[in-house]
Each structure stands twice: as C-alpha cells, then as structure tokens.
Amino acid sequence: MTSTTTTLRLLLTGVLAATVACGPKAGPPVIPSLPGDGDDHVAKPDDDGKAPAADDPWAGRTDLIKPPPPQPPAAITLPPIEQFTLPNGLEVVVVKSSRLPVVSYQLMVKAGRADEPLARLGVAELTADLLPKGTKKKNALAIAKAIDLVGGLITADAGFEATWLTCQTMAKDTRVCLELLPEMLTQPSFAQDEIDKAKSAQLLDISRRLDDAGALAGAHAQNLLWGNDHVRGWVTSAAHVKQLQQKDLVAWHKTWFVPGNAVLAVSGDVDVARLKKDLARAFGAWKKGPVPARPKYGDEKPRGTRVRVVDKPRQTQTQIRVAQYGIRHDDTRFFPTLVWNYALGGGAFSSRLMKVVRSEGGKTYGASSAFDRNADRGSFMVTTFTRTAETVATLELVLEEIVKMQAQGPTQEEVDAAIANLAGSYAMRVSGADDLAAALVTADLHGLSQKYVSDYPVLVGQVSREDAADAARTMLTPRDTAIVLLGDGDAIAAQLERAKIPFERVAFDKPIGPQPAAADTPVKVDPKAAEAGKKLLDAALAAKGGDKLLGLKSLRMVATGQLQAQGQTVDVEFDRKLVLPGSMRMDIQIAKQFDIAIAVVGDAGWQKSPAGVEDIPASQMPALALQRWIDPELVLTRHRDKDTAVALLAPTKLDGRDVEVVKLSTTKGFEATLYLDAKTKLVVQSRYPNGGDETVETFSDYKVVDGIQVAHRRTSKSAAESADLTVTKVEINPTVDPAIFKRPK
Question: Is the pLDDT of residue 693 over 50?
C-alpha cells in the first residue's frame, strides 16, 4: 500500500471530527550551568614520558596561610514560601523576601517547543514574541511606555518545555505588572503588522545560523540523534516560519493558555495577604478551560553510530559534536551523572576533555560536555572544534575519553572536585528570590519537590565514586552516537575515507529535517557513495523480484487493519488498484460505515466521500505524486531514473537486526531513506518527508506472489496519524477496467 497516513489526511477532514492537540531552547533552569574553576595548564611530558619537576619558589615555606578545607555540603534555607490556587485554577507560589524593594512576577504556561505539531513548528516562540507587542487595549508602544515609566522589565519567551511571561518592578509600582501581565496573557491582539515584524526577526536569526558554525552543528546533531519523527529532531527553518499565520497563533494561545495549565511565581517584597486579593482581582477574568494532553514521544531505540558531514567549503576549522540520549531530571542517576559529567567535560579547565584535547593534544582551544535537564530524556552532547587537518584525530581523542569514562568512571579525586564545585556554587545560583522562585516552579514541572531545591547541595555531596561510575557505565553509549562534523567537506571526507568510517554528507545550507515543502535539490553525495548505493539497490531489486518487478503493468492489493487519526482509532479496509505508469484508485471503508474512493490519473484526480464527489485540489496533487514515487512495490526501481541521486549511508541496527541504509532524492524534491535487511536485501523500513511531516513505514512478513516479494504486514506513522495493516490479497498484473478511474457524475 502507499502511505495510508497521507492518503487519509486528504480524505478524512469531514469524516473524523476530533481535536488535534499538539533544540530546544530551555526555559529557566532549576540548576544553572556551572563555570570552570580555572585549573592550571597541564605541562607536556619530556621524551621519557615524565613531567619535568616544577620550579616552585614557595616550596618549603612554613609561614604561608593555608586555605581552609572545604565544608561538607549543606542544604540551603528557603525563605517563607506560600502556595495557593486562585478560583480559576491558577496555581501561585510566593517567595517572600524583603532584602530588596523589588517584586517579580514569573508566569509559566506549560507549553513550549515540545508541544508544537510539526506542521506549525515555531508557533510557540512566535506567539510568545507577540504577547508584549499589543493587546486589545494597548499597542506595543503603549506597553513599552507603561513599563519604562516605572523602570521595570517585561518579557515573554518560549522554551522547550514552557512559555514564560515575566514582569519586574519596584515594589511600590507592582500595580503596573498586575495590569500589564494579565492583559498580555488573556487579551493579545496578534496584530498582523507585529506578526510580520516578529517573523522578519526570526527569519533573520535563522539566516544567521548558517554563519554560526557552532549553532548549525548543534542543530544537525539533534536532528541526526533523534531523527525526523521526534520533536527534538525538528529544526525550525525559514519555510516553517513563513507559513505561520495569525490564526495559528490564535489557536495555539486558545489551546494552551488556560489557568489550569499555568503557574505564577511571585517573589520579592510583598504583603501576602494583600497579594492574594490583588491576584484574584487581576487574574479573575482569566476563564477556566480544558487542559490538553501534551504530545508524547517514545524513547528512540539505539541505531548505532552515525556520522554526518555538513559541508561548508573553505572552512579552516571543523565543529565536532558527539551526541547520545540523555537522562530525565527525575532519574535516580541524575546527581551521579552531574558528577561524572563534571569530570568528563562539564568542569571547564579541570575536565578530562579539556586536558586531553587542549592541553595535552593541542588540538583545540576548548572541549566540553553537557546534558539537557528536562522532564524528558533529552540529549547528552560533547562539543569541541579543531583545525580541519586534525578532525579525525580530535574525534578519536573525544571518543576515547568517553569510552574510558564509561569503563572506569571518575577517580575519587575527580569526584571530590566535582562535589566541591557543584555543591559549593549552588547557593549563589539561587541567591535571588526570583531565581529561587523560578527553580521551585521548574522543579514542580519536572515532578520534583521543594526539598529537591533546598537539598541540592546535600544530594550532590552524597554521590560516591561507585555511584558516579555506575551511572557513567549505564548511561554512556560510545558505540551508539550521532556524530556531526561541520567544515570543509572534501577535506573531512578524505580523512573519514582513510579511516574507513562511513558517513553521509549534506550541504550546510540545506534545511535540516522535515520541511513544510519539499526541498529543491537532492542531498549532495560522494560519487563513491552514489555508486555503492546503486549497487545495493540493484541487489535489493533482484531480491524483491527483479525482472518480474520491472515487468509489472498493474497491481491490486487489499489490506485491513486500524487507523489512528484525529484522536480516534477506527477499523479500515483498503482496496488499491494501480495501472502503470500513472493511474491509481483506492477504495477505503472506515469503521465499516463510511465508503471513500480516491482516483488519480496523471496530474489530476477526484475523490468521493459521504459528502459527495469533488476534484482533488491542485495543492494536494504533489503529495499524491510523492505517494506514487515512494510506493513500496516500486521504490526500488527509482534509482534507474536519470533525475534520482543515490547515497549509501552508514549501516546500522533496526530492532536488533543489521540493516544497510540508502538515500534517494530527486530534482523534483522527492526524497526517501530506505533501510534494507543486510542479509535478504528486502526493505524493512522507509522514511520520507511529507508535507512538513515525516512518514515512517515498516514492512515485514514477506511472501512471494507470482515471483515478487510482497510485505504482508505494514505500519505507517507520522506525527499526527498512524496505521497498522495486514495485506489479505495481492494480484499481480490483473485486468483492470479503465472505467474505474473516470470521475463519477
């Protein structure tokens, strides 16, 4: 069958009625990132391998003042904290502190980049950008004047997990925040001229990413690690931003901005009793609403080590990223992971990566490692750069240190240093009442308690060397990583080829991940990779049916199963008839009640549903053309077309089996990645961008029908829909009445 999700997306709008609810830029962190401690440079050894004796003028002195020993980590004392809920369901956390005559309001809406549908990527950030740019009562200038008049600050920003609105003024001017914040929150105007300005600013930031080698490498690493069917693998492009409209912002705001999906943190010099009355009055008009379920994504399965070369010609340095799956914030290994990561690359100049890659290896100025601290698993990533000629050598040094950390864990000395720095600097990070309030709210978002915030130093101090070593052993996966090398593609490719390391190669200016519209050009591929890919596809074509498949003139296939779309699961039956080169008809029965038909001949088509018969809009024809191109019975023949480029990618594992990977792309903008069983050469999975989404199809239970291998079990999945089908009937070269393709009267 062709992709069921795309076909049904075209047909089911009026049949299934349900609400579809739907890199990362982090919101205020619970535990801020920590600076290095300025460790001394490491001297290079002499030829005999021993470091030269230091000429220490202070040696033997007995009159020097010795620093005090580090104190045992202790919990911080939290100021008075009150929590209550307004009648409309808005949760409030108050952190009272009279040290400064300042009041800060931080309102967190539990919706961010992680909740965006692929078709509306970028909507969370654009919505946040527009909140201070006008309400139904005030325009952007009036809001700016009101906050400037009292010397205050007002912002709105969307992160990966949440959207934050903040307002801060002197305590005597708190009424300004109580007026502006609820108005921005509940009555945004989303004026078209302000939308245009905000989109222009975002497009400028996206274009700048092409000149920011570090940011571009990081985006590619996330995409390569998580893939095109996980929100963490999606990268906002110009095409995503351009397609956003005012109605998208209105819908996003209406869906997620409800009191029951928000928390307000108030900190500073406040009278709590008076504050309760003020908040009830200020936010009282914010009406209750249903809280939608947040999208869920399963943990990605290991896919082996993959290498992507991002070709940016004439670069003298290579940006290196080594990424793997990370750890949830509430994982019991979180604090041991803080410790071993500090030793590996989180401790700046005191870390192993910095010493080995910079001080000893002389390969780079800096190297570090870090992991996301979110409610979901997130990513762990090593970041460094080096001279182009040292690319593979530097990569090998990084991987060696990861392997060592996994095998041995940190030393006791490294554990002691990590605890002293992590626990010792924590109190400074939450010294402000607003910082502490943000930490409390974010901890709650991650399912953690107030005690987590207060006892953080103690919890760090309880980590033993064995705890850290065990966490490193179970977390680090040096043989299952996503490696991105961004720089001069020719020079990097030559090094990888000499080292016999498989890789894929893409242009630096090619959009990353699935796009709203198909790309204009195929992926740039190495000639050797192209030739190897074609040989693999020739072998796969022979395994599938060879001449029998090439001689196919018509095909009929019947399948039954279940479809999940628009929030519902229904039984479906498909009866597809295909007459080459370009005629297709599909009859679909949904829930044994609704009959739908769709037919395409060349560049035109029609569809019939309970609502009647109508022509398929021209805007939907490219999607159907893609379906015929990606057809699982015919896709193995596409590499014989003159306008199709082929690239052999690195082999990997898929559900425990060895697979070979090949990518096809055409000048028409079609592209697909095929995963072939290493032994049988049969297609076990295909992935392809599809109208701003990505479809993943899997194939199993192959049976020979008239000399052609046909998968009798098929699943199809995109961000919004999925199908699980069993093929019940296959006819090769049946006689098909041409009349079935004619539009009914």
Answer: yes
Q: What is the per-residue DSSP string for 423-452?
A: HHHHHHHT-SHHHHHHHHHHHHHTT--HHH
Question: How far, CA to CA in Å, does 322 sit from each of 33, 241, 356, 506, 507?
Answer: 19, 28, 16, 17, 19
CA distance 565 to 560: 16
Q: Give the domain ranges of the chain.
A: 306-427+450-507, 517-738
Using a pLDDT cut of 70, give the percent of the chain over it: 89
Q: Please report which residue ranges of 210-271 form alpha helices under DSSP H.
A: 213-226, 238-243, 246-256
Instruction: Please tell me the predicted confidence (pLDDT) of residue 365.
Output: 78
For 598, the 3-state DSSP assignment is strand
Confidence (pTM): 0.64
> Taking the C-alpha atoms of 485, 639, 599 and 577 in order, what is their torsion angle to the nearest 10 degrees?
-120
Say if CB 467 and CB 409 are below 8 A apart: no
Give the pLDDT score at 17.
31
Higher pLDDT, 32 or 125: 125
Looking at the DSSP assignment, which residues form a beta bridge with residue 158? 163
Kindly report the number of other CB atoms within 10 A of residue 298's CB atom: 7
End-to-end CA distance of the chain: 27
CA 570 to chain centre: 30
> What is the arithmetic mean of pLDDT over 72-95?
93
Neighbours of 729 (CB within 10 A): 12
CATH superfamily for 306-427+450-507 is: Metalloenzyme, LuxS/M16 peptidase-like (3.30.830.10)
C-beta of residue 225 within 8 angstroms of C-beta of residue 205 = no
Q: Which CATH architecture has domain 517-738?
A: Clam (2.50)
At 529, the pLDDT band (50, 70, 90 cuts) reads confident
- Measured distance CA(360)–CA(641) in Å, rounded: 52
Cα(100)–Cα(269) distance, integer angstroms: 7
Distance CA 278, CA 275 (A): 5
Tokens linked to 174: 């708190």
**Candidate from 35-39, 375-379, 381-385, 522-526 with smallest mean pLDDT:** 35-39
